[in-house]
Amino acid sequence: MKILITICFFLSLIAGNLYSITLDEAIKRGLEVSFPIKQQKETIRSSEYQYNSTLDPYLPQANIQAGYTRYLNSGSSSTTRGAGTTGSIGNDVYNATGSLSYRLYDGGLRYARRQASVSLVGREKERLESVKTDILFNIKTAFYTALGKKSIVEKRREAYETSKKIFELTKARYEAGVAKKSDVLQAEVRLTSSKIELFDSEKDFEKALEDLNSILLYGPNEKLDVEGNLASPSTKEDIDSLVDRALKSRPDITYQMKEIERLNMVYNEKKSEWYPKLDAGLQQSRIDKSIIPNNRQDTFGLTITYPLFDGVGRYYNIKAASSDIAAARYRLEEIKRIVRLEITKAYKDYELSIENVRLYNELLREADTNFEQALGEYRVGKGDILSLLQAERDLTKAKENLVISLYQANNALAYLQKVAYLTEY
After folding, report:
1. Are 232 and 408 in contact (CB under 8 A)?
2. Does the predicted TM-score (pTM) go above 0.70?
3. Cβ–Cβ contacts within 10 Å for residue 419, how many?
4. What domains are defined for the chain?
């Protein structure tokens, strides 16, 4: 019993390093561990902290200041005036000042900066959606490619077994005296070629798994496998509906719209420089010869500030902000043009891939019929080995081409979903 428990324990450890993963599981893990997604989330947090900091100008400002002054010239002394008294306090002077101030009006500067920060947060959130869309596309293409390579390994293993049966059949016919030595050699060459092709496909599958393994951040000692049905994909959307959807919701478009909002607030911020600033302040000052001053003076002030002339910077800052807005709007229209083009080309590539699947299905049926006929004729002595081997090659190639067309069609749909922003996670 102890030996059995030990064996089960080691088997569980070995099995613990094996991961057979479906597409949904791959998507879930990929979105959780992705470094670009984590990086963008931190960028969003940074922009949110910056937004919180824009609340400061709306709050009153309180300051306290204390100091000590010694007049080195013995003839100098400080004179205080407070509480109805005036007098000299000597050469050693201590002072303390407390003030409370609040900006009553700033021409919309605070509001513009706060709203610009809101747009910045929204812009970075849209960038996160773009990053997620890219990661999702990478996961899908890596998964479907690995699944296709796995299926090709299976097809080439079938081809190897078929070549082995043909070789054994040809060898038996040669031993019975109804086949030539050259037929055996040709069948053996095909068997060796099938073995080489099988080995190549296995290595291609391993490399495809490494691509997926890297995206999902599995360790080098963790063995990954893929599970799923490689079927022909389909979509009910047409080009016009995909374009309309993308123009309303695609992250790079909404990102640019948020950027235009931010630049509008920057324009308002520059425009606020043309308005006066109104501040209110309350201050208490103390100055005396003791370290804790007693002579007190309270003041209240209301200040209006307006620069009559400070150069030409204000004018040109507004002109620059206006040009930035115009440039951003042109950029938005260019993005929309690119989106339309990307969706149209992606949809046509998807249609082509679906047609390839249909044609390779037909080719596979024809190649299978041709092989069965060639094999039957060869068994009864009516066919030759070259025709049989060529039919077997055509059948193997047709199976591989169908698999390739299937995973390429799934990749084409994944790209169409990416550019049309049809992805959900």
Report:
1. no
2. yes
3. 23
4. 19-275+282-420 (1.20.1600.10)
